[in-house]
């Protein structure tokens, strides 16, 4: 019999989709080092696996993740945080994954849990999903990219409101503000995310990676730099057998047979 902490992250493969399920139910999937290490390892393994075309991260029906593990952090000193390389060691892994990463969010996505969703490429939210960056209540700050990604996602006015007042958004508000990609009924969350991930995983992988890298340029940099990056990514598509196959298949009114998936 395993305790919760023996399996803080569970993985499974469905078709070409690699699923990662956060599994610390008693702590609402609070993100401690064990969870983040296991999440980082699972992401790296799926990113390197030729049989996987897209990755999906989920939690439980009650919580995607309730944030960084407050119990673990409460007595850390500044030096503890610096020495364990608190953020870089795993949150940078999420940035380095080149395949599309989907978040399937039900229940609480708070603090680091909301930041984890923000770090994913597509967020599918169940009706029950709740998003907040409540770190201010702890005299902390959303330090896993939250103060940077949230304003980019929903604009400064809404982001300041969430970060300074700890305002919690329900799924419909999060959808309206652009924090999530789609809202689905709770009972359909995994099935709908699987269908979307499987659809994406069926496309040409180098094309998916090029699109992801280009959209991230828009997210991260200037328009001029982003346009230049996008142009090179587009030109590189013409060196790809899949792009020629995709266009010819359209002209010949048949499904494409991509070589690189
Ligand atoms: N850390 C540790 N334990 C937690 C956390 C957490 N973030 N959230 C919940 N738990 C534990 C509770 O202590 C409780 O444990 P116990 O049963 O032993 O008392 C158990 O989970 C169930 O929680 P509740 O009884 O509180 O459940 P409720 O349904 O009443 O409330 C809430 C659910 C609203 C989600 C509530 O638990 C809550 O407010 N949690 C804290 C949310 C929060 O403040 N998150 C931000 C944390 S700070 C942060 O994320 C910093 C990010 C920057 C660095 C990121 C690096 C990873």
Lay out the secondary structure.
Elements: E1 9-14, E2 17-22, H1 33-48, E3 54-58, E4 63-65, H2 70-73, H3 78-83, H4 88-96, E5 101-105, E6 108-110, H5 112-119, E7 122-126, E8 130-132, H6 146-154, H7 156-165, E9 169-170, H8 171-177, E10 182-184, H9 189-201, H10 205-220, H11 223-237, H12 241-251
Parallel strand pairs: 2-3, 3-5, 4-6, 5-7, 6-8, 7-10
Antiparallel strand pairs: 1-2, 8-9
This protein binds octanoyl-coenzyme A.
Octanoyl-coenzyme A (CO8) binds at residues 27-28, 30-31, 66-71, 108, 110-112, 134-135, 138, 140, 142-144.
What does this 3D model show about the protein?
A hairpin with a 2-residue loop joins β1 and β2. α1 runs parallel beside α4. This protein has twelve helices and ten strands. The strands form two sheets. Strands 1-2-3-5-7-10 form a six-stranded mixed sheet, sandwiched between helices. Strands 4-6-8-9 form a four-stranded mixed sheet. It has two domains: about 200 residues, Alpha-Beta Complex (2-enoyl-CoA Hydratase, Chain A, domain 1); about 45 residues, Orthogonal Bundle (Lyase 2-enoyl-coa Hydratase, Chain  A, domain 2). It is about 50% helix and about 15% strand. The chain is α/β, with parallel strands linked by helices and about 260 residues long. The site of octanoyl-coenzyme A (CO8) has 21 residues, from α2 and β6. It comes from Comamonas nitrativorans.
């Amino acid at each position: 019999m395993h305790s919760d902490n023996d399996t803080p992250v569970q993985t499974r493969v469905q078709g070409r989709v690699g699923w990662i399920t956060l599994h610390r139910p008693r702590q609402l999937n609070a993100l401690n080092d064990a969870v983040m290490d296991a999440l980082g390892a699972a992401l790296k393994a799926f990113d390197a696996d030729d049989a996987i075309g897209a990755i999906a991260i989920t939690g439980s029906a009650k919580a995607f993740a309730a944030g960084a593990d407050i119990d673990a952090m409460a007595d850390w000193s500044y030096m503890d945080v610096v020495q364990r390389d608190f953020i870089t060691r795993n949150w940078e892994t999420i940035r380095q994954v080149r395949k599309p990463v989907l978040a399937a969010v039900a229940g609480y996505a708070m603090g680091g849990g909301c930041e984890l969703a923000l770090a994913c490429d597509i967020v599918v939210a169940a009706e029950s999903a709740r998003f907040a960056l409540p770190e201010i209540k702890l005299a902390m700050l959303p330090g896993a990219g939250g103060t940077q990604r949230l304003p980019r996602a929903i604009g400064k006015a809404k982001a300041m409101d969430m970060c300074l007042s700890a305002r919690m958004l329900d799924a419909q508000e999060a959808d309206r503000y652009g924090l999530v990609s789609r809202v689905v009924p709770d009972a359909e969350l995994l099935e709908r995310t699987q269908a979307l991930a499987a659809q994406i995983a069926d496309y040409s992988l180098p094309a998916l990676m090029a699109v992801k890298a280009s959209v991230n340029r828009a997210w991260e940099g200037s328009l001029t730099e982003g346009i230049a990056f996008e142009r090179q990514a587009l030109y590189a598509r013409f060196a790809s057998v899949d792009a020629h196959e995709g266009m010819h298949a359209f002209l010949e009114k048949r499904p494409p047979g991509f070589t690189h998936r």
